[in-house]
Amino acid sequence: MRSFVDQFVLKVHGGCDLTCDHCYVYESADQSWRDKPRVMTAVIAAQAGRRIAEHARRHRLPMVRITFHGGEPLLLGVSRMRNIIETLRGVLDDTVRISLHVQTNGITLNERFCTLFDEHHVQVGVSLDGDRASNDRHRRYANGRSSHAQVLRALALLRRPQFRHLYGGILCTVDIANDPIAVYEALLEESPPRLDFLLPHATWTDPPPGHGATPAPYGAWLRRIHSRWLSDGRPVPIRLFDALVAASRGQPSGSEAVGLRPVALAVVDTDGSWEQADSLKAAYAGAPATGMSVFTHSLDQLMEHPGMVARNERHEELCATCLACPVVRICGGGLYAHRYRRENGFDNPSVYCADLGLLAHEVTAVRTGSGAGDSPRDGLLPAVHNLPRGAFDAFAAGAGTVEGTKALQHVQLSITRALVAGWPQPEGHSDLAAAATLGRDLLVELDGSHAAAATEVLRHPFVQTWAAGCLGAAVSAHREQHLAHVAGLAAAVAWRAGVTTSLPLPIRGGLTHVPGLGASRAAGTGTTAVLRIEGHGRPPSGWLEIRKLICASLSVVIDDLDPYRVGHGRSAWDRLPPFRCDAWKQALSRAGDELFRLVPEYAGPLRAGLRTIVPVRAMPVTHGTGAEDTQRAFGAVAVAMPDEAADADIAAGLLSGFQRTKLHALMDMYDFFTVAGSFPVKVPHHVDATPVKRAFHDLYVHVALAELWQARSVAPPVRAAHGRTIEAVTAFRHHHQQADLIVDALAGSGVLAPAGVRFAAGLRAAVDRLTGRSLLQAVPRRCSAP
What distance in Å separates the CA atoms of residue 75 and residue 70, rounded to the nearest whole number? Predict the structure, then answer.
């Protein structure tokens, strides 16, 4: 169970301007709203804020989420809403960052509210059940009049450029009497940044409409939307589907409705009473009550309430049926309230058990791609993402395209997101465990409110390296320190988003690391240090910034700080002195210019996809191909300077490294082999058999280097730093011969899947194209090379 609460619902108004007949506040078993004040006062809001601040200080929370709810919260009016917001900020702003949200039916949303919400950064979620016919089934005024037009007016207001950033999304309550596709299409027409589908709050004592008529009516309804959503290319995040996928991977779902990870949430009613989640109103009269209030009990006392304990100890509180179910880790037994039966309380599966079981199988089914076609007629469709038409074959020809490289970036971003979401739950109560938990909570919150900044951080190549390592066994000796690195990611997002916050970060070698941006020197001997992010203000004291190189041929950072960078622990430089960094920039700029001059078809995708250079002292070199890097770090290349490694060739190193990172990304999308990548294949004239995956990477590098050396052979020679020369034709012949041998060995190995066969055929054509050039019959000339 979590020891703290970081999500709060404030019931600021107890009335509503609609009479929705599926409302769980006014139409369910608990009718306690009748005995409570209509409006929350500023006095109660201030005391709630003091309790939250007290809790945040004790547990060192970097941020809390507060949602204004009701009833209908906008009935509070602009002036009283402003008073509540400013009261909370006056109490909390010096203690913890607050993320403010409001969930509204949209009827009274106007420009004055939007201006207020813009001033205080309040995200607005709107409830809408679909097209007019679907929405009017429940969401009507007391006289039966439709509310649909008023809600659409509110959504149009949120889509205005000056208010678009306030648009939090649409919440839709499922009604199986409605056409699911009509509902889905109507919601998409409102251009929401995200959607969520809410199962009507119901119990075994008071089951939902249509329950039992067919095996899983709600699951079947949502499955139709899920299928259409996939075919549309997932145009908008849908929280329920994403939560199920996350839970299936052992990740926090971020939702109370599914998954086994706890979600700590507390409600403050209009009278200042602490309550549990509103969904419990569907169970029985008084179900959400705790007997506590903001004036009498702290949040730590609230967390000891038996109901809070039961809702947060997700696995321990499940019934025997759920514990024996194979999908329990995905559905998590469903929402706690939905398990209620008058005869035995909550010791039951969810009343939506069959529906959740169907969705658990449908939504989390793994779609594996068997090949690499660009259109359905090829019969070789990728798993989830599609490359632009013709891009796969362009990569198979050697260079690829800029558009295809950008598509690979999107694929890798998706993988990184899944890996980051899947980091294991920290155990214990150490400073590192606290940093990990707080960091992840802040990261999730900022990803919702500052998506562009979060995306930029997650694109940093070594975020994926870290996240993949956290899921393996290699980090077990320093598990807590590795998991706590997520706090650095959250700090990086806050920095880029201009958000002011404080967060404990793990200390490594006297530094706290902010991925993609730099590191700060940490004082003391502890395991963590609090880093203060001042929005777009001054950097922290002792700050070491990652340097950048921006020139015509390259736009990269030179990362000599990230603890998860390629080569770290083997040969990576830790922090370059300024003069050496300047020399590196000059050499990289010259190498990039050479690539654009000699092999522009390779240089274009390289500039589009290469984000990070890791300076290393030496790289293992085998005929200039470099060593295979098995770390996940798309867009990063390790490079050695000539004065650090006698065999270094920076242009060739950039080209080789980027070939490998492209192929690694393609192999994430497509199945190249029918066997494991470690399966050995015999290449003629090679002493030992080579793992098939390594052979494919070597082939891809040899083809690119053959292109480079062919171009060098006819370019004006430039003397290298050491004055060493090499015959360009000889180098070309070496790489061409190696590519010729390897491609034949792979083609005849019998272990290539359709995508591998197609890719090998493209490389075979590239080798044959090089064979046909006049270079092999040309009079050799000499070309300088380091």
Answer: 9
**Euclidean distance between CA atoms 348 and 334, whole angstroms:** 10
| Buried b / exposed e along 427-445 (16+ C-beta atoms within 10 A) | eeeebbbbbbbbbbbbbbb
User: Residue 258: which of 275, 241, 270 has the closest Cα?
Assistant: 241
Burial of residue 678 (number of CB atoms within 10 Å: 0-12, 13-18, 19+): exposed
For residues 288 and 307, give the distance between their C-alpha atoms in angstroms, rounded to a whole number. 8
The H-or-E segment that residue 102 falls in is strand 97-104
Q: Is 291 exposed, middle or buried (0-12, 13-18, 19+ CB in 10 A)?
A: exposed
CA 695 – CA 752 distance, rounded (Å): 12
Rounded Cα–Cα distance for residues 6 and 416 (Å) = 25
Task: Report the Cα 59 to chain-centroid distance in Å.
Answer: 26
User: Please, are residues 483 and 424 in contact by the beta-carbon 8 Å criterion?
Assistant: yes
Is 668 within 8 Å of 633 (Cβ atoms)? no
Q: Are the C-beta atoms of residues 503 and 531 closer than 8 Å to each other? A: yes
Round to whole Å and give the CA distance between 726 and 391.
35
The CA–CA distances, whole Å, from 360 to 172, 350, 423, 712 equal 20, 14, 21, 56
d(CA 756, CA 743) in angstroms, rounded, equals: 11
Q: Phi, psi at residue 124, to the nearest 5°?
A: -115, 115
Please, what are the averages of pLDDT over each run of 10 residues along the chain (786 residues)?
Answer: 82 90 81 90 96 93 92 95 96 91 96 96 95 91 91 96 93 94 95 94 92 86 90 86 83 79 84 92 90 95 86 70 83 90 92 90 56 32 59 93 91 80 67 88 83 90 84 57 91 91 91 93 86 80 90 90 71 85 90 93 94 78 43 82 62 92 89 84 82 92 94 66 58 92 91 90 92 50 34
CA dihedral 685, 691, 693, 696 (to 10 degrees): 0
HSE value, Cβ hemisphere, 13 Å, CA-based, for 350? 29
> How many alpha carbons fall within 13 Å on the CB side of residue 351?
25
* SS3 letters across 421-437: HCCCCCCCCCHHHHHHH
- Is residue 32 within 8 A of residue 285, CB to CB? The reply is yes
Q: How many Cα atoms sit within 13 Å of 257 on the Cβ side?
A: 21
Give SS3 for 6: coil
Contact present, 331 and 357 (Cβ < 8 Å): yes
